[in-house]
Amino acid sequence: MAAETSTEIAKTAKQVVLKEEVIVERQWLKLAETTYTDPFGKTRTWETVKRTGNKKGVTADGVAVIAVLQRTLHYDCIVLVKQPPINGYCLEFPAGEWLEHWDGSHMSAESAALRELKEETGYKGEVIECTPALCLDPGMSNSTTHIVSVIINGDEAENTRPKQNL
């Protein structure tokens, strides 16, 4: 019987979380230190950011909208939103938490995306596609998002001079 390589061992061995120590927790996020054993049996620690929201009845924490503004005789435009949380400006897609209704029910990812688009840009659009839940930064967070593609008819009266509704 040939000796197994470290790569073969890693493929069959399991990573096991031993404990999670919460460092700080706020309304939407918590910072934790996770202690685990890697596939080779070595104990390691990792700093993680986790969402604190309740995921009952939903498949993801939030939605992100890829919105394309279409107008007759104009180029199609991607709609972006300015966000200052990085102590400067960056451009990102309209996005937000997937919240439950007052009665405990949940809206669809598509409805949440259209709500976020309207709040952050003032535009009203039509959903074209919605991805399954995706973890966009698994090295840092357990947060998951549906990416929703939306077309905005820029020729509609309500989309000619949109205003944010934050």
UniProtKB/TrEMBL annotation:
A GO CC term attached to the entry: nucleus
UniProt-listed GO biological process terms: nucleoside phosphate metabolic process; ribose phosphate metabolic process
A UniProt-annotated Pfam family: NUDIX
PROSITE patterns: NUDIX (PS51462)
Hydrolase keyword on record: yes
Protein name per Swiss-Prot or TrEMBL: NUDT5 pyrophosphatase
Keywords per UniProt: Hydrolase
